[in-house]
Amino acid sequence: MRRHEGDGPDRDDERPSPGEARRRSGISVAQVLAAIAVILLVIFAIANFEPVTVNFLLFSTEARVVTVIVLSAILGFVIGYYVGRPRRAYRKLLRDFRQRKD
Length: 102
Description:
Distance between the termini: 36 Å
Structural class: mainly alpha
Number of helices: 4
Oligomer: single chain
Largest sheet: 2 strands, antiparallel
């Protein structure tokens, strides 16, 4: 099959960069790993449905293991999200750098 003018990129600078190609692809490896982790968490939580005593600093209470696991996972996600998130000054620096680059 012959290529005609206008059929696609003819020069190297018209091709998408590797970063652009990665952004356009479907599911990333991180998304697959996160989905597997969630599935394993759900299976583990369902398998551990019996009640246990949960001790806090000032009191203790009864709760199902599945509740403790799910709440711990949610709390860990929230803490990880805010700790791993770039600070406002760093985000501004990145934004300014990207604008100068374009």
